[in-house]
Every structure is written in structure tokens, then in C-alpha cells.
Amino acid sequence: MVQYSKKIQAVPEPTIRRMPSYLAFAEGLLRKGQQFVSSTQIANYMNIDPTQVTKDLSYTTIVGKTRVGYEVKAIVDVLSEFLGFSVMDNAFLVGAGSLGSALLHDSGLNHFGLKIEAAFDINPATIGRKINDVEVFHIDQFRDLAQELNVIMGIITVPAENAQTVADLMVAWGIKAIWNFTPARIKVPDDIIVQNTTLYSNLAIIFNKLHQDKREE
Amino acid sequence: MVQYSKKIQAVPEPTIRRMPSYLAFAEGLLRKGQQFVSSTQIANYMNIDPTQVTKDLSYTTIVGKTRVGYEVKAIVDVLSEFLGFSVMDNAFLVGAGSLGSALLHDSGLNHFGLKIEAAFDINPATIGRKINDVEVFHIDQFRDLAQELNVIMGIITVPAENAQTVADLMVAWGIKAIWNFTPARIKVPDDIIVQNTTLYSNLAIIFNKLHQDKREE
DNA sequence: AATCAATAAAGAAATTTTTCTTTAATAAAA
DNA sequence: TTTTATTAAAGAAAAATTTCTTTATTGATT
Ligand SMILES: NC(=O)c1ccc[n+]([C@@H]2O[C@H](COP(=O)([O-])OP(=O)(O)OC[C@H]3O[C@@H](n4cnc5c(N)ncnc54)[C@H](O)[C@@H]3O)[C@@H](O)[C@H]2O)c1
Ligand SMILES: NC(=O)c1ccc[n+]([C@@H]2O[C@H](COP(=O)([O-])OP(=O)(O)OC[C@H]3O[C@@H](n4cnc5c(N)ncnc54)[C@H](O)[C@@H]3O)[C@@H](O)[C@H]2O)c1
Q1: In a domain, A216, yes or no
Q2: What is the CA(A101)–ligand 1 centre distance, in A?
Q3: Which runs of E-coded beta strand occur in chain A?
Q4: Is the CB of A13 under 7 A from strand C?
């Protein structure tokens, strides 16, 4: 009878996963000057069922007009608000290696409400460098800097074997959410939000479909 | 009555998503010399229900021993085979920017059965460079090189607005699967496998949980 | 040797998510 | 003006996934 995650979740996770794509699509339409968009159009873009789009949007305050669709501007405004992209949250990134640097370079994170305030590493070669205006500090300075800045999220991009050490540090300081890019699972107290982003899962799905195709032949 | 994806899928996608983590965990245990592992241990590591692990593994040929668990070596061997990680598939990467470079540097892809044979870009500054032994060619050379090498997967890491152009090129040449890292959805024929890896979805999930916590207070 | 406790496995039940159906609205066409 | 076609919305049904329950096995303990 152990609860593995307190799911008092009104909005289904798959819905939340799809929403950023709806938003990106709507932003594109807005730039092109399109005023309305129907669930059919969105569904066609996403390659999913139109009623799925309707249902997803029904979790927000967006309402559509029969025979017309949804106002593009409304989708952009409401979704970015709804997804928490319109307020900036501050984060620290630990592990300024290949993946860490890529994330630091990515303006998309900024656009979607995440500001990486500082990066940390243990490699003397990278410490002191600035990556896309974000300074890389020695990991020992984590505490002091965390105190200074209002940081609620920690991003882990160190080698898998060091993930737990870094997570412990983040928890000890009082970070609320951890975005873990290593394939390792970390152990943290229940009230800390952990999001594991394992790219290799995607690879497994592709291979599975590829080989399934092979089997059918 | 349109079919959006032919799901003749025996193994649930969530199961496939979890398996690479089981594998990584088992590989770690193997290195430490542990011979058996129970579903309880795996579940504890993954923060999920033990019966979920049992059910997941039941899709493979792995069988466990009552009161003992599963043989670690068997999990490693069977899962890497099952997930398609034990045969090398060849890929091309288009867009040798920040994210593309990170992927090229990542030995994890190699370990999980993906060999990036060549990279492509349009930026003269990057063309000709070698990133982790993978050469960066001009995109115009895609066709010729694809002919030469046995490439079945294309990885897209160009800016979102160029994703469709690149996808079209890949399809025209005859690539079977596309791993799309841009937030844009691409249109391809039905027989092409597309895996969208949108990092921002993960961000949305974290924010949703964070703000939910705030609401509960 | 007998009992206990931990576990895998299989199936049932519950839950979650997607898809289908119906209804009502309304823009466009006849 | 009337008809037609497209759409959003709400709810029902279906499908997929997870969790629970039961059973059998077996290593460890008494
Ligand atoms: N590169 C990719 O595209 C990619 C893809 C998928 C997953 N990942 C995962 O992301 C993680 C990082 O991968 P990478 O390719 O960027 O590796 P990397 O070696 O390029 O970078 C890791 C960085 O972490 C630093 N580091 C190590 N221990 C540290 C510690 N205790 N505190 C602070 N910094 C520390 C290193 O000095 C290095 O700069 C790995 O777990 C990898 O599996 C990477
Ligand atoms: N950097 C990240 O961490 C990150 C995170 C999430 C998503 N993404 C997505 O990945 C994509 C790439 O991001 P990035 O940060 O690596 O961008 P980037 O600008 O660093 O790299 C893009 C590269 O693609 C090349 N390019 C552009 N058009 C091309 C074409 N038609 N053919 C071949 N090459 C072309 C550019 O020259 C450049 O080298 C974007 O869609 C971005 O949203 C990146």
C-alpha cells in the first residue's frame, strides 16, 4: 500500500506532454498572422486524433468557436501561462560537459520560462569559462551562490555515476525540483520533484518499431 | 475512422521506456559482481511498483526464481538484445550545432547500438571539422554518402524551421526512421518511423508539478 | 522437519487515457 | 431563406496501463 507518487493530478501527464507542441504550433501560426485554428488542423500537425486536441484544450480556459476553431492568440497566451512558461524560474546546472553546454546554449529554455543562473563543474579547464553568458563555477561554490540567487531547480548533466552525489547536494541546499539527464535514477526525499529525461528510452522505442516492421515482413 | 498509427504493438510503449533503465541498473550490478536481483530491488531503484517490473520483464524471455529474483547477467543479455542495443545501427546526424555536437560526443549512443557515421551542416565554419571522430560534411553530400554507408536512421538537430526540409531529404534518400529533436512536428510518409524528442515537454511536467504543489499549500 | 517470509507469475480489478458518439452551433453554399 | 458541412463540447465507450490479489515456490529460520 505504498504510494509511489501522490497523483492528485487533474490534468493527465500525456496532455501536458502534448501542450508544448500545441503552443509551438500556435506561435508559428501567430507569426504567420493566422487568427483561428481548428482542432483538426492542430491534430493534423501533431498526427493525432482531433478529439484528443479538443479534450486537451478543455483542461484550460480556452474555448473554441463552432465552425471556426480556437483563437491562435488565446492558445499562445493561455497555454504559456498554463504550462508555467510565462514566469521565469531560476535553475542551476551541474556538469558543464557536452550536454550541459548544449543546454546552456539553448535559448528555447529561456523562451519556455527557465533561466539558468549558473553552471558548476569540477574540471579546472571549464571552471571560470562563460558559456552563452552563464559562468561556470567550481561545485564547492554551489551553496553560497544558491543562497544568493532564487534557485528552485537543479539540472544534472554529470556522468551517471556522479548523479546521486550531485542530487544530494541539491537537496541539501533546498532545491525543489531536479531535472536529471543521466540514465541513473536518483534517491531523493518524497517532496522533491524529479524529472528523468532518458534519451536512450527514445532510442529503444525507435529500435522496437524498426524491428517490429522487420518481423512483419 | 482514420488510423493514426498502426499499433500492432505487443509490448506497451511505457514498458519499452522503462527497460533501458532496468538494463543500466543491471549493468551496474554486474560490474559490482551481484549475481541476482529481485523485482523489489529494481522497483525500489526506479521508484515504481514491483509488480510493474515483473510484468515488464515478462514480455521478454527472462524468468525469475522465487525467493531469489532474476539473474543479473540474464537481464543484461536479454534486455540489450530485446531492445535492439546489441546490433549496431547506422545513423546520419543533420545539424552539428550545440545539441548535435553533444550527441556526437555521447558514447552512450554507441553503447546502446547506434553508430553515427557522419554529420551534416550548412555552416562553412563547422564543415570539415571532426567531432569525436565523426566528420561534418556539407548537406549536399548527404545523398552520395548515404548511398555508400548502410544508414537507416536520421537524427535531426537543426533549428525547428529547417526540420521539414531535412526530413524531406532523409525520406527522399530512403531513411527508415527519424529521430527528431526539434520541437517542430514533421510530415513524412506513413511507413517512416518518427520519434519526437521534445525536451520542453519535460520542462512542462516539472512546472506543472511545482505549481501544483504551490496550489496545495 | 516444520514453519516462515520473500518472491515470481498469472490473472482480476482498478485506473487512466484515448477514441467514439451525440448534440448544438454557425459559417458557407445553394 | 434553407440547407449543408464543419466544428467544439460533453459524455459514453473502448482500449491501454497499472495496481491488486491469489497462488505456488523455495531459501532461510526455528
Ligand atoms: N552528450 C549527450 O548527448 C548525452 C545524451 C544522453 C544522455 N547524456 C547523459 O548526460 C550526462 C552527461 O553527458 P555528457 O556527454 O555531457 O558528459 P561530459 O563528460 O561531456 O560532461 C560531464 C561534465 O560533468 C563534470 N563533472 C563530473 N563530475 C562532476 C561533479 N561531481 N560535479 C560537477 N561536475 C562534474 C565533468 O567535469 C564534465 O564537464 C551523462 O550521464 C550522459 O549519459 C548525454
Ligand atoms: N541545444 C539544446 O540543448 C536543445 C535542447 C532542446 C531542443 N533543442 C532543439 O534542437 C535543435 C537544434 O538546437 P541547437 O541548440 O543545437 O541549435 P544550433 O543553432 O546550435 O545548431 C543548429 C545547427 O544546424 C545547422 N543547420 C541549419 N540549417 C541546416 C540545414 N538546412 N541543413 C543542415 N544543417 C543546418 C546550423 O548551421 C547549426 O550548426 C533546435 O530545434 C532546438 O530547439 C536544442
Answers
A1: no
A2: 10
A3: 36-37, 70-71, 89-94, 114-121, 130-131, 134-138, 151-156, 177-180, 193-196
A4: yes
Protein residue closest to C16, using CA and C1': A12
Please indicate, yes or no, whether residues A66 and A138 belong to a single structural domain of this protein.
no
Q: What is the signed CA dihedral for A160, A165, A168, A174, rounded to 10 degrees?
A: -90
Shared domain for B77 and B161, answered yes or no, is no
Identify the pLDDT of residue B147: 80
Domain count, chain B: 2
Strand D nucleotides within 7 Å of a protein CB: 5-11, 16-21, 24-27
Tell whether A114 and A195 lie within a shared domain.
yes
Question: Under 8 Å CB-to-CB from A169, ≥6 apart: which residues?
Answer: A94, A139, A142
Q: Which domain holds residue A109?
A: 89-201
Q: Establish if A61 belongs to a structural domain.
A: yes
CA distance linking residue B117 with residue B29, whole number of Å: 31
Ligand found nearest the CA of A98: 1
Whether residues B135 and B99 fall in one domain = yes
What burial class does residue A72 get, using C-beta atoms within 10 Å of its C-beta: 0-12 exposed, 13-18 middle, 19+ buried? buried
Work out the minimum CA distance from A161 to partner chain B, whole angstroms. 10
What would the pLDDT profile of A134-172 be if each residue is shown by its tens digit?
A: 999 999 999 888 878 889 999 999 999 999 999 999 999
Same domain? A134 vs A154: yes
Atom 33 (ligand 2) nearest CA: B121
Are B27 and B119 within one domain?
no
Tell me the pLDDT of chain B (217 aa) as tens digits: 344 444 445 899 999 999 999 999 999 999 999 999 999 999 999 999 999 999 999 999 999 999 999 999 999 999 999 999 999 999 999 999 999 999 999 999 999 999 999 999 999 999 999 999 999 999 999 988 888 888 999 999 999 999 999 999 999 999 999 999 999 999 999 999 999 999 999 999 999 999 876 666 5
Roughly how many angstroms between the first and final C-alpha of chain B, as a whole number? 45
Single-letter amino acid, residue B111: H
Q: What is the pLDDT of residues B195-212, one digit of tens each?
A: 999 999 999 999 999 987
Distance in Å from C19's C1' to A43's CA comes to 14
Of all nucleotides, the one whose C1′ comes closest to residue A58's CA is D9
Residue A211 lies in a domain: no
One domain for residues B75 and B93 = no
